[in-house]
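re: ur question from yesterday

yeah so i grabbed the chain u mentioned. its 281 aa long if i counted rite. heres the sequnce exactly as i have it in my notes:
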Amino acid sequence: MSAAPLNQPLSRPDPTLPVGMFDSGVGGFTVLRELKKVLPNERVVYFGDTANIPYGDKPPQLIRSWAKNMIAFLLQKGVKAVTIACNISSSVLTPEDLAEVPVPVFGLVYNGAAAALQATKNSRIGVIATVATVETNSYGKTIRSFNPHVEVTQSACPKFVPFTEHGVFEGDKVEEAVREYVAPLKAKGVDTVIYGCTHYPLLEKAIKSHLDGVQMIDPAVEIVEELAAYLHTNDFLYSGKPQDDTIYASDLNEYFFANAERFLNLDIRPLAQEVKLNRSE
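ran it thru and got these structure tokens back, copy pasting raw so excuse formatting
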């Protein structure tokens, strides 16, 4: 792992500033949860674009404009790095977009692909992702750029994000959807599967039950390891006392609060603010 951002930062970040993070909704909580395990002292400014979920059925150029808006918002809040905790946003942002960001930017696709290549034994990798991420073929392109001989099978899972955003993690409908979506991967004999959306690890129990013996790759783990290594190597780690994070969302709702409490073990109401970013009305 390179421990390098996706862009060339224009200046040296102030280590006392927070880390910025954004996602289409609550899926980024899986990245935030991992970050707090690895970097407990770091303060995070998080934005969830809950007014526009799910992203998976939206046009790539619209998602790209939303992602650029969220990066600009985080920069206004004075962050020292940006973590794109959203696979489709990582997939649609261009190198030119990232070059405009003055602080280091970290994305999910590169890290997830690299980890899957290290894990696979039979060179057959599966990807479960949103429709939009599958259509960009970002994981397939990245994996094959490392090793053109690897077989990549992708499966779009449009029901998963609505399930997780509404707090549905088990039951007959979840099992039926998981069975349908993993069938193409099992048919191809994959031995490694990438969670191509940060929401999907929230359904880990159901997904793993249908993929027994398959190595699951969570890019959230990989991106946090890379961020931590970069901050440590460059002396950008915050060394003071832990401070409260700040949570923003384009639509604060009970599902958002409930999922935060479930997966972060935290009542975020005192930390949360609604910002009408990316709203069309």
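noticed a couple things. Residues 109-219 form a domain with the Rossmann fold fold (CATH 3.40.50.1860). also The longest helix spans residues 60-76.
anyway ttyl
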